[in-house]
Amino acid sequence: MIKFQPFEMEAMMSQWENTVQYNLSESGVHPLRLADLVDEPELVHQLLATELNYPQANGLIELRERIASLYPGATADQVLVTVGAAEANFVTLQTLLAAGDEMVMMLPNYMQIWGLAYNAGLCVKTFNLDEACGWKPDLEQLRQAVTNRTKLIAICNPNNPTGYILSAAEMDAIVAAADRVGAWILADEVYSGAERMADVQTPSFWGRYDKVLAINSLSKAYGLPGLRIGWVVCPAGTAGEVWRRHEYTTISATMLANKLATLALTPTTRIRLIQRTRACVRQGYALLDAWINTHDGILDVVPPQAAAIAFVRYHLPINSTALVERLRKEKSVLVVPGDHFGLDHHLRISFGPPSAYLQAGLGRIHELITNLASG
Ligand SMILES: Cc1ncc(COP(=O)(O)O)c(C=O)c1O
Prior knowledge:
Elements: H1 8-16, E1 22-23, H2 34-37, H3 41-48, H4 61-68, E2 79-82, H5 84-96, E3 102-107, H6 112-119, E4 123-130, E5 136-137, H7 139-145, E6 150-156, H8 168-181, E7 184-188, E8 212-217, E9 230-233, H9 239-249, H10 255-264, H11 267-293, E10 299-301, E11 309-314, H12 320-331, E12 333-334, E13 336-337, E14 346-350, H13 355-373
Parallel strand pairs: 1-12, 3-4, 3-6, 6-7, 7-8
Antiparallel strand pairs: 2-9, 4-5, 8-9, 10-11, 11-14, 13-14
């Protein structure tokens, strides 16, 4: 039997994120308050009248319609509302693959997919995003990894932890690789909308190929992680199959979360939330970038194109897990070690929190790394 592999990064975060003084391990922006979303007395009134029943198990129809409208050609029946993108990834993989099946994923990546695949007895092959080329994907490696046995290619775009956004040509190359062998594409697109350098939302894989399952949530680009609302948009024949797994997993997200999510995805509110996220990402990165620049020879980074995280390389003779342990114990700051992405000598640092908090947390990191640098 396969030895269970925990999700290292989430395990570390759930253990420490609420006990440290400065949590810079999150990948999203500082969340909205409920009052920022429910900002009219009439809305408060309507929400207070909600019966706390189960919602429709695959998501309230109005919510699914709003989600479907974001994916050209999709209908509400092709949308399954889940408890975060975490559940969407879980049920999607469970639906499409079984023990012994082969899949290909990009690295570095949010390692939920890798751990789920490992624990389910799948055979996982990888292709890299190349730091020396600004985190561009190695498409030759992808071509070699995909064989007639490949059932699925898992993509995270924009990417966690690098913030890299695939170009249209790179997306086409991934589609071509999948199409060549008839593989599914699982596209985790939770950072679409959290662009730092462009005001154009990162396009979905949806619509580029008929075997795409497009996953997203309100946790990152919308600043609402506590709602625990995610979704997967599926080809027509597949939505029911994924829903059958959802019934075994969570049955449904909550009624209140479904209602609040419907509110968040009204067209004007949706745009307001995305603009807020982009403003946070831009302001936070300016601060982080200035801080990195004061550590010449110790830190460098390929500037992320999206998300509130930077994957920072450090030039110090200490392993990333050991460095993160010291930061937590000695400085009460939590960041994610590169080890959790299979790339030592990196730290994933969040720049999503408010400026004063971020500045103070970075100040604590500065104390330890300059100490280490001076031997
Ligand atoms: C790429 C990616 N996918 C999925 C998730 C899970 O998100 P959710 O809060 O929607 O479950 C995360 C969380 O960090 C993530 O980074």
